From TrEMBL:
Taxonomic source organism: Aurantiacibacter zhengii
Annotated NCBIfam families: yjeF_nterm
Residue positions binding AMP: 407
Keywords assigned by UniProt, alphabetized: ATP-binding, Isomerase, Lyase, Metal-binding, Multifunctional enzyme, NAD, NADP, Nucleotide-binding, Potassium
Residues involved in K(+) binding: 61, 114, 150
Upper taxonomic lineage: Bacteria, Pseudomonadati, Pseudomonadota, Alphaproteobacteria, Sphingomonadales
Recorded family membership: In the C-terminal section; belongs to the NnrD/CARKD family.
Keyword ATP-binding: yes
Biological-process GO terms, alphabetical: metabolite repair; nicotinamide nucleotide metabolic process
Matches recorded under PANTHER family: ATP-DEPENDENT (S)-NAD(P)H-HYDRATE DEHYDRATASE (PTHR12592:SF0), ATP-DEPENDENT (S)-NAD(P)H-HYDRATE DEHYDRATASE FAMILY MEMBER (PTHR12592)
Protein name, entry field: Bifunctional NAD(P)H-hydrate repair enzyme
Amino acid sequence: MTQAADQILTVAQMQAAEQALIDNGETVESLMERAGAGAADWIWRLAAGRPVTILCGPGNNGGDGYVIARVLQERGLSISVVAPMEPGSEAAKTARDTWGGQPVDTAHGEVFVDCLFGTGQSRPLSNELVGTMRTLAASHNLRVAVDLPSGVDSDSGALLNDNLPEYTLTIALGAWKRAHWLMPAMAVMGERRLFDIGVGPVEDAIQLARRPGLSPPDADAHKYSRGLVGIAGGDMAGAGILAARAAQHGGAGYVKLSSPHSHPDLPADLVHDDSGDIASLVSDERMGALLIGPGLGQTDTARRKLTEVLKSGIALVLDADALTLLRPEMEIAFPGTVLATPHEGELDRLCKAFGIVAEGKLAKAAALHESTGMTVLAKGPDNVLVGNEGTRFFPPTSSWLSAAGTGDVLAGLAASRMAGGRSAFHAAEEAVQIHAEAARIAGPAFSAVELVNAIPAAYAQFL
Ligand SMILES: NC(=O)C1=CN([C@@H]2O[C@H](COP(=O)(O)OP(=O)(O)OC[C@H]3O[C@@H](n4cnc5c(N)ncnc54)[C@H](OP(=O)(O)O)[C@@H]3O)[C@@H](O)[C@H]2O)[C@@H](O)CC1
Ligand SMILES: Nc1ncnc2c1ncn2[C@@H]1O[C@H](COP(=O)(O)OP(=O)(O)O)[C@@H](O)[C@H]1O
Ligand SMILES: [K+]
């Protein structure tokens, strides 16, 4: 069921949703009034009595700016409006006339409000407009983008200009847009808030991931009922151990690491099969999910292991080397129960191997899902999850995750959730958020081992 508050719309979907409201008796003016007043409330709180400068563009985003100017002025704030372009739309003209003030050439204040362009941004800004924005942004301590920062492409999250300002707060109007959750735009938005103007649920909209609701093991749980995870390791022991550790903390009752190496740091509570015999791992009927890739290597033996695992019919997480080795001719028994977790480079390699030509992370992940039937989690600073259940975006997480081994931790977590009975899609949805919470708890400059150690505390946040 689509949740209106969590839906993420394209410009076309947003326009259709606004049209549906208008067909139901609203007008562009009444929607603008509601949107502008809602944004003004947030800006009022942020400004706390300090002067506000509003940059208004020619379209309805500029119209929102004139509504904000009027509402805040009526509440007694000192407001300056900078308007390098005349209002073009009827609603924006009405909003400016109702405000009734005189724009100024430039202003210094405490809060800068960007109402230059929103979803109607159709091309890069002129150098002159970028200069105006930068000057205003630099002379105000707090910066608010209304709906979207100007210069951002709403559907792709691309920045259409260099040297755009960074914001303290971005207030999405009516619904989230894709750019609110996609890099590089996501990184300049600061805090994000959504103001509801009555937009209803839109069919097939991308959703923001739901906060996981985890539970403790059932009263009569035993180690197998909680889930048995197998990790098919290979040449590099460390990555497999990290993933196995994460799987132990991710809810599974039993984790078995199959790798032909012993390692001085092998935990005593991890079951280790040093024969590395893949046939015995996949023949274990209690196996709830199997992870292959971290530390696997790219040798012929690794390829043979992958081929066997793909045929096993066990729910799988494919990461790292397994993604590099995967080829269209390899038979996957049940692609619907397979989760692939590529980072950007692995996603590109997979697309090449599967003959996919697509632009951008979302299109690549969607095409890979379509072509293989696997659920695809395209990782990075922004995470995009595509599966039979739909598409999910995620809130930004700690940039300290950019450390070697954190992907192995995520893969182990996802396998653990799958062994516990989640679908590939929901396992990934939960794993990304447990991982993000562990990163928050681990604080700055953590290593992958410290991230693993923070998982139980992260898990507790969702109980
Ligand atoms: N519709 C509704 O019911 C509601 C909408 N709401 C608000 O409206 C916003 C969308 O409004 P919008 O569609 O008018 O687009 P907006 O972003 O203001 O810009 C369009 C104008 O900019 C121009 N332009 C574009 N790029 C340019 C460039 N680089 N350099 C120069 N010019 C450029 C473009 O010109 P054109 O491309 O036609 O030449 C056009 O004139 C939305 O984000 C939300 O804030 C809310 O009030 C709630 C109700
Ligand atoms: N700048 C960043 N901000 C937030 N998360 C990041 C960032 N860079 C990487 N990550 C996350 O860290 C993990 C890195 O995974 P991956 O690249 O596979 O690393 P490795 O193979 O070394 O384990 C992924 O979960 C990814 O989403
Ligand atoms: K804006």
